[in-house]
Amino acid sequence: MNYVGKTVRHKKYDEGVVVEQEGDYLYVQFTEQDEKKRFRAPACFQTSLQLFDEAAAAAAHAENLAREERTRREENEQRIRRKAEAFERRIRLREAVVSEKSAHVRSYSTLGAFFDEQERLLQAEIKTLRDGGGKRMRVVDGHLIEFKSSHYLYSFESDLELNLPDNTQITIWQGQQSLQGHIVNCEDFAVIISCEQFLGQTVPVLEFSAEPWQLLNALVDRLKTLRQRPTDITSALILDGMKKVQYDQPVQMGQNTARQMSHQQPITFIWGPPGTGKTQTLAEIAVEHIKRSHRVLMLSHSNVSVDQAILRVFEKARQMKPGTLVRYGYPRGKELLQHEYLTSYHLALYNHPDLQKECTALIQERQRLPRTSPLYVQATTRLKQIRNQLVDEEKQIVGQAMFVATTVSKAVVDKTLYESSFDVVIFDEASMAYIPQIVFSAGLARHHFICIGDFSQLPPIVQSKDASHLSTDIFQHCGIVDAVEAGYGHEWLCLLDTQHRMYPDIAQFSSKTMYRRLLKSACDMHAKTRPIVDAAPFPGNALCLVDLSGMMSVCMKTADSSRINVLSALIAMSIATVAARSHEVGIITPYHAQSRLLHAMARDVQEMGAGLQPITCATVHQFQGSEMEVIVYDAVDCYIMTHPGVMLSSTENNYANRLYNVAVTRAKGKVITIANADFMKTKKLSRKLIFRQMLDDLTGSQACIDGAGLQGEMHSEVCKWYDIHDGNEQFMIDLCSAKREVRMELPGGISFFPQRDERMAAAIASAKERGVKVYIRAASKADLPELLQPLAVENRFVHNPICLIDRKIVWFGEPMSSKDFVADGAVIPTRYRPIIRFNGRRLADALFGFLEMNKTVDEALALPAADGKTRYSTFASYVNATEKCRECGSPMKLKKSRSGKFFLACTAYPGCESTRLVETDLVDSYLYHEGEFGKTCQRDKTSLEAKLGRYGVYVSCCNIDRHTYRLDEI
Predict the structure, then answer these.
(1) Cβ burial, residue 43 (10 Å; 0-12/13-18/19+)
(2) What is the tens place of the pLDDT at every residue in 745-758?
(3) Helix (H) or strand (E) holding 425
(4) Does any domain span residue 111?
């Protein structure tokens, strides 16, 4: 604006006229001043000059506001540029310094670079799976649950926690024959298998080998196709994520915002922390799209997630006709299995009820006919025709449905899906999927792709060290995780910020440690979950720590390099059985072996019929997506391990934090962590670990329960806790009542009360006279009372004071051991020695296997007798002292092969691999080394002699009953 000629007033110089204007500068000649004064417009009209012309004054004011707004905008743009440059520098620096073997975010400049890298990673994972594949797995208690599309579906139980993707190809082994099948569903310790051959109504035992790499091969093929025809959505997902960071905005929040974004933009990420209504939001988005005539495909990593999603959508769309909503594939939940038309298979039968009747009749007819019968062949042919008809019908159903829900594994291998396209694709639990799976899924979407998940929970599972980048999830790839950690928003991201599951104290811990304090609790959560908090055990505390410091809670490696801790497992189950009087309980542990031990106990508890609520035991991975009223977290790690395992301590990719966060946030009202706080403290866990923060928060507080406090809380009829006197009395009753077998593990001395030693020795002698087989293994025989030394064999791997009676009654702490931990050369005193009795065959069998109690060969040297002569209490000690290797001269030792045959092996192994068979003369020389009468039968006191049988040398007595003994029993 031109201000020349305008009259102005100044507070000091009074009136004047603008006589000249150069750009933003005005020159004013004041009446009382000789020299002109210079001012900067239009700001001067806000601070020092007043225009007489009202119109000019208004124009100056407007110009000043516009200029200020422009300045603010430019400053904001500069600030955003600086933030963006710093953000990108941090990412480039990380990419430069992080090891090639580590999982971290990689950015790609071209689609070709992305596809090349992902194929390389998948091929590395395929190679690892193939190299380790083919291992046979054993499942039991199988029964036929359904005949579907000419396939028989069987449900089995497993001692192992299996983790095989749906649709994994398998080979079923029956003697020397094999047949093909696939995994329908695999969760916890249960597996559903499909095959074309009838195996019987029940199948006691089945062996199969899995080929999970076939799914990844199929994924590689899908990516190759997508590479040739990438969509706009996949291109943006691969290349543009980092460009969508909003440096001047916070994270967008709320279910309404999430729904709006899913309709307004091609790509939406919904970040759903635990209990925030992810499934509810998914269902609302899906129904809104269906009402707009959009076809929707819903995918997820797990069957449970898929089942939950379609049921929630069905709740909101019951008025829609059959065939609008379809669950494709085999569901896990009973509600869907029994639903008339929600699954594609049941809908096909719903549309053709005559085929259902004919199919059932043909199956029954085949079961009555011999396989060679022409009628059998005719029935089989017709069943295949029906199967093909139903398969075609299912494909038509899927092609016509407005909402299809299935697993990503099925989408990868099924042409019905991967050769189709949908208006909308929704991917649930996206953080657990490989990025190639997400990109493949996005390629099926024409208009909208919606990723739902929580990057603070479980990452993808990767086996290959050369494919560690596969554990990077899609949230990390798109820059969302980095943006949130820096306090920025992201154009594609919306957070569901209100949780409706947990007691506020639990949610607050998770919000503080994992969700940048963005997670809040609904107003009614305190009242809803308070009854769980106030219930036993440890009433009034939502977060509790059971501190095993001062106890002999030994952590051991198993044969498959997993870990177990017998005492912490017993304590976890004791706590669970108290809580299960009124609430459902989940016991979570980082290790597969410990989950097997706990699962065995849970099945024993279930069979007792104690009237308890369900107790579920599994690793963290099996609990993703579920919830329980009470969670018991068994950390397992303790002495004698040198360090906690990576599942508790790894900060790579925030791995340990993500696992522990899943465990904590499964609970509605109570989280009880079991750990040895002293052990963890000495190992100096990183302060970044939220497990460490939980220990720091609770150690020493009223919510921390030590050994003394635990004894007073454990009033369980299932896991019975005893004091020293009552425990010893009950133990002696059990010992005297043994009918078949007693197995004792003695890690240290037990000489607290000499009279107890005498009673125990007498009870053991009485048991042997009754024909009970007694096996006592001691870490050091020299530490035992003299009465027990001749009865024991030495095994340095004995660490737990355990006794199994008749492979059913399990005692921990009886006989009581005086053993203490020794760490870094210092003795750690044991202050609390729990005595626990558990009655359960499955636990006894699990302990027998994990602790390798079948290894009863004595590793001790000979013990000198009072007369100065050498006495050998076991054949193994005699061999070690008297037999030398014929190759190198080293002592020999007694060993037992997997088939049960005994042999001699050089103690210099692996330097010397010499072995030889056990001869009867050697055994006889041991039997008579103490004198002319020799050793006698424990049952009838007659002489013993060595015999040669089909399984090698054994020992027999000279009585007519011929009692026999193995070489590790003499």
Answers:
(1) middle
(2) 999 887 556 777 78
(3) strand 422-428
(4) no
**pLDDT, greater one: 475 or 134:** 475
pLDDT beyond 90 at 581: yes
Query: Where a domain ends, among 474, 498, 522?
Result: 498
Amino acid identity of residue 13, one-letter, is: Y
CA distance 16 to 31: 6
Residue 525 has a CB neighbour count (10 Å cut-off) of: 22
HSE-up of 48 (CA within 13 Å, CB side)?
A: 13
Query: Which amino acid is it at 800?
Result: N
| 610: Cβ contacts below 8 Å, ≥ 6 apart | 577, 717, 718
Q: Give the whole-angstrom CA distance, residue 433 versus residue 437.
A: 6
Tens-place pLDDT, residues 277-309: 999 999 999 999 999 999 999 999 888 899 999
CA–CA gap between residue 620 and residue 639 (Å, rounded): 22
* Domains of the chain: total: 6
Do 459 and 532 fall within a single domain?
Answer: no
Does pLDDT of 237 surpass 90? Answer: yes
Residue span of the structural domain in which 782 resides: 723-850
- Cα separations in angstroms, 655 against 246, 453, 590, 632: 27, 16, 12, 20
What b-and-e string marks burial along 728-752, b requiring 16 or more CB atoms within 10 Å of the CB?
bebbbebbeebeebbbbbbbbbbee
Could you check whether the bond before residue 747 is cis, i.e. omega within 30 degrees of 0? no
Q: Return the closest-CA partner of residue 47 out of 16, 72, 11, 18.
A: 11
What is the rounded distance in angstroms from the CA atom of residue 956 to the CA atom of residue 970? 10
- 943 and 840 part of one domain: no
Under 8 Å between Cβ of 944 and 936: yes
> Do 858 and 744 meet the contact criterion of CB atoms below 8 Å apart?
no
H helix intervals, 98-245 = 111-131, 213-228, 232-239
Paired sense of beta strands 915-917 and 944-949, if any: unpaired
Specify which residues 211 forms β-bridges with.
169
Which tens digits make up the pLDDT trace of 425-459? Answer: 999 999 999 999 999 999 999 999 999 999 999 99
| 899 membership: H or E segment, kind and range | none
In a domain, 272, yes or no: yes
Residue 737 has pLDDT above 90, yes or no: yes
Q: Both tokens of residue 577?
A: 């059985």
Closest CA to 378 of 358, 408, 395, 393: 358
Shared domain check, 76 and 142: no
Measured on CA atoms in the order 666, 561, 649, 437, is the torsion positive or negative? Answer: negative
Rounded-to-integer distance, Cα 182 and Cα 166, Å: 8
Q: Which helix (H) or strand (E) holds 295?
A: none
Radius of gyration for the alpha carbons in the chain, expressed in angstroms and rounded: 37
Closest CA to 344 of 304, 382, 399: 399
Question: What would the two tokens of residue 534 be?
Answer: 């106030």
Residues near 368 by Cβ (< 8 Å), separated by ≥ 6? none
CB 546 within 8 A of CB 670: no
CB-based burial label for 869 (10 Å; 0-12, 13-18, 19+): exposed
Domain end residue (candidates: 498, 532, 555): 498
Copy the structure tokens of residue 98.
Answer: 């992080």
Instruction: Please report the pLDDT score of residue 751 as a whole number.
Output: 58
Other Cβ atoms less than 10 A from the Cβ of 862: the count is: 16
**Rounded to an integer, what distance in angstroms lies between the CA atom of residue 267 and that of residue 256?**
16
